[in-house]
Amino acid sequence: MSFFFEVLIGGLLSGVMYSLVALGFVLIYKASGVFNFAQGAMVFFAALTFVGLVEMGLHFWVAFALTLVAMIALGLLTERIVLRPLVNQPQITLFMATIGLTFVIEGLAQLLWGSQPHNLELGIQDEPLAWISDATGMNVSKFDLVAAGIAAVLVTSLALFFSRTRIGRALRAVADDHQAALAVGIPLQQIWGIVWAVAGFVALVAGLLWGARNGVQFALTFLALKALPVLILGGFTSVPGAIVGGLIIGAGEKLAEVFLAPILVKALDLAGGGIENWFAYVLALLFLLIRPQGLFGERIIERV
């Protein structure tokens, strides 16, 4: 039983890191209705910029501050150059624009810093915590626990920002109805700019954590694909949904890899496992058949 809980806790902690990537999608989609497929490229750009500055000899926090400025600028420029000229265009047009933006950001990052992989050290060792192992017999990674704590602080801060501040209330108004928000004097373009800047900050935090775990390499861009099942389960417009969806996906794929994969291999006489790579998408597909809007999404009823 202790091994089961060890796998479950490890999956939940990994799921929190998935939620960080999904959170960037939710913020932009909630405010502007745009599915920003370039969020994964923004994570890659942030991680590569940070590690490039550190390798130039800059102090950790100086590199962090400069990368944060770069990510905010990237978000604001994206809103100004890509989103604003395409306002009121079909959703497929905006989606295709973010796909093109993905390749632009990827190419710009590699043009500035090179395409070779980098190691990223945050001073947090990926090793079991001794006191937890001694007390419970379970191995819980120190890195996963700290990363989950950072993600929890970030999500709580964003939730308070959007629920308690004037800008947050304006964001909720824009998310509910663009025309009504304009009618009461809320500047849509300013709100969109703020949201894209916040999404850039979220991409920086996600890039540092994922870069420290897997290395800073081109594969970080595929985190956008990993976040899709999280969004489907939680709902595209819900910040809590991004967290809950990430926990479900993280725990589900770890439990499936450890417990379900051996059963399938033996029962069906298969060659091997690898269920962790695709189980999340199967789970998301099944969920679409049951509740397409996600756990926390709003059901859309069309009237004829």
Short description:
With about 300 residues, the chain is an all-alpha fold.
Alpha-carbon Rg, integer: 20 Å
The overall pLDDT, averaged over residues, is 81
Strand residues, percent: under 5%
Count of DSSP H/I helices = 12
How many E strands? Answer: 0
- Which structural class fits the helix and strand makeup? mainly alpha
The helix content is over 70%
Order of helices and strands: HHHHHHHHHHHH
Shape: globular
Largest sheet: none
Distance between the termini: 54 Å
What oligomeric state do the depicted chains represent?
single chain
Low-pLDDT regions: none
Q: Explain this structure to me?
A:
- This protein is an all-alpha fold.
- Helix content is 73%, strand content 0%.
- It is built from 12 helices and no strands.
- It has helices at 2-32, 39-55, 60-83, 91-113, 130-136, 142-164, 166-176, 178-183, 188-214, 223-234, 239-268, 279-290.
- The mean pLDDT is 81.
List the SSEs and their pairings.
Elements (H helix, E strand, L loop, with lengths): L1 H31 L6 H17 L4 H24 L7 H23 L16 H7 L5 H23 L1 H11 L1 H6 L4 H27 L8 H12 L4 H30 L10 H12 L14
Helix pairs in contact: 1-6, 1-9, 1-10, 1-11, 2-3, 2-4, 2-9, 3-9, 6-7, 6-9, 7-9, 10-11, 10-12
